[in-house]
């Protein structure tokens, strides 16, 4: 197994590194808040250490203000609470009603969701009016996300990506949280002739179809069917509702694995398993949905462990064309400065959280191994060369890659491939990973997205 898992690593041993993460994080959040001009759009990724925007789809604004809320959560510094709250109120309303994206869980759970969670946990004062405001935003967000629906020939369907109704992105597995929370809050989507459409049903159908069409299980589906391999995009004929082929927007090919998509699957399925165990009534008989989610989560987790470097960092795509020039790279620690193919630290930050969460829903030796894998990856990320120590760099997590095929990532003079830069999603998920482990080290309440709406009546 390429990842050299440290079976003895504990959350407490990671606390000094986590404290350093949030020490650096504070200054970087301040710097971005001070220097960013909202007229430039949304910060997406860095170029020469400064955040820039990139028009494609507006999916990173929530990470900007959500990072401030995570900083408050970890440190108790109320300045960051007010920064995140102000940004949410002033800048996030259009994201609640954004009908053109599949990213509601990213934008709105990171902002409105974090604020409501903090209130539910007693971390901020209970305010009935603010609670109503946050709950309304999350209800609307979940319904708007669920309305972006493509029906399939078997009577189910999926939330289609911003590419159009033919497109099922694996990324959306983590955005499903918006439907879960809105369902918890008693909301539903109203359709034609006042039809009440269950948000939970749409969540389940989307996730089941992601598991069916975006994840491989080594069962002979095609000539490249390797267990755990993940297609970024599944393409459907919208006239017939029939699956046509795998595809990839941000990966190298439909028949290799873009590792950030793989990471979204690991974390997305892990969180949905947590949500089902904690919040849904136990089904009568076999829970076939949870069984399929566990199958998908285990397959993708094992694939990641076999295809990352020895320190837990993956290359940006498992089939990238110049990987052969790196020799036996999987048996070594990652080298973000190699001249042939970039790594993607953001994929590692997302996957590490998924591994730790899987440990709570997959029992036995496998669960224990996944927990230690998550801790081992976190240890790599929370130090150089991945942790950004420079005060001149606005990013927190270095060596993140956005869109390699489009050539959007900055290549520093003297380098051959992108490295040394950060992304809003990489920084946010590094902070979220650090907070998840910090809470475990302090025996605090687990960090869970569904904690923002505990004990609510389900109306759909």
Task: Please characterize this protein's 3D structure.
With 460 residues, the protein is mainly α. It has one domain (11-452): Glycosyltransferase. It contains 14 helices and nine strands. A three-stranded antiparallel sheet has the order 5-8-9, with no helix packed on it. Strand 8 and strand 9 form a beta hairpin. The chain is globular and about 60 Å long. The termini are far apart.
Mean pLDDT over the residues: 96
- How many E-type strands? 9
Characterize the main sheet: 3 strands, antiparallel
Helicity level = 40-55%
Question: What's the quick description here?
Answer:
With 460 residues, this protein is mostly helical.
Features:
460 residues; mainly alpha; Glycosyltransferase; two-stranded antiparallel ribbon; globular; disordered C terminus
Write the layout of secondary structure elements.
Blueprint: H1 11-35, E1 45-47, E2 50-52, H2 61-75, H3 78-91, H4 93-96, H5 104-120, H6 128-146, E3 149-151, E4 157-159, E5 167-169, H7 172-175, H8 177-184, E6 189-190, E7 196-197, H9 199-213, E8 233-237, E9 242-247, H10 259-279, H11 288-307, H12 345-358, H13 364-381, H14 424-441
Antiparallel strand pairs: 1-2, 3-4, 5-8, 6-7, 8-9
